Amino acid sequence: MDAPAVRMEKIDAVTVVTLDRPQVRNAVDADTARRLHEAFLAFDDDAQARVAVFHGAHGHFCAGWDLQYGAHAAQEGGAAGLVAQLEFDAATARPAGPMGPTRLLLSKPVIAAVAGAAVAGGMELALWCDLRVLEEDAFFGIYCRRFGVPLIDGGTVRLPRLVGMGHAMDLILTGRRVDAAEALRMGLANRVVPRGAAREAAIALALQLAAFPQETLRADRMNAYEQWGKPVEAALRAEWERSRERIADGLEGAARFAAGEGRHGSAVVPAEAGAERHARDVVPAEAGTHGAARRSGPPPARG
To answer: Which of 75, 181, 198 is closest to 126 using CA atoms?
Structure first.
């Protein structure tokens, strides 16, 4: 029996979502996109989950949209049929994107653990995440430039906001490869770790975020996202309106500091966060069966 294309794993307050299609370097077809969308909605709706880690199995994050699937879809219904499938769903407040979750703004952070290729739509998935932890030999690239496949999962929106228009235009127009060291310099990566370490490093970072007071963390995160496009005065007012409810949390934190917690930059771990990892519960995104064991590296992918 084949392993599920998307599976979920819970480690304390961290949810790990793993993309597992080794035969195509984790390229995404319509069914996989649906499963990714459902997985991240489940994470966002889970009151016990605080941070997610998005990981690609078998040494690659994601090679983008599955071009073999696209070629088949073109034969079945042509471009018009595919466009109809990918349209925004006006009937839902949480629409799915072509690659799955890319039209969502979740209420909680997601960290990308990037190994190997994160290219084309796979790069757009990484850009959708709040933070990106790259292995030292991982790479980004808008490789879909070669085949005329447009960026329709937020790449033209999130990339300029993340690295500035100059870097974004370079990457969007040339489609060139960006290795981890350059990604770190331009702000595309937040951390670079040794080969094979991205998943564990991202989980460690997620556990760190999960240990902070959550309501304040989520308010600050959402304010940072929602300030885009607002005049400064309007953005400042919106920041205050959301964060005024967190003043009491800040006073509680001040009292803990006065009592001796967190002095000289030492860690403060709220009692409810849970510092120890629980036993790992690995399940497919849509079912309760256990995923298959890790297999060897995949053959060349779709591009």
So the answer is: 198
Q: How does pLDDT run across 241-298, given as a tens digit for each residue?
A: 999 999 888 888 888 888 887 676 666 555 444 433 433 444 455 443 333 333 334 4
- Separation CA 240–CA 238 (nearest Å): 5
Identify the three-state secondary structure at position 18.
strand
Q: Which of 286, 302, 298, 283 is nearest to 56 (CA)?
A: 298
Residues 254 and 257: their CA atoms lie apart, in Å, by 5
CA distance 35 to 20: 11
Measuring CA to CA, how many Å separate 299 from each of 122, 126, 179, 296? Answer: 17, 22, 21, 10
Integer Cα distance of 169 and 28 in angstroms: 25
Please identify which residue in the block is written with the tokens 């940072």. Answer: 224
Please report where in the chains the tokens 């960026």 appear, as a residue.
Answer: 151
Per the listing, tokens 């991205």 go with 198
Element (H, E) at 281: strand 281-284
Handedness of CA 113, 4, 300, 148 (dihedral sign): negative
- pTM (predicted TM-score): 0.86
Sheet containing 177-179: give its strands across. Answer: 117-119, 139-141, 177-179
If residue 134 lies in a helix (H) or strand (E), which one and from where to where? strand 131-135
| 245: number of Cβ within 10 Å | 11
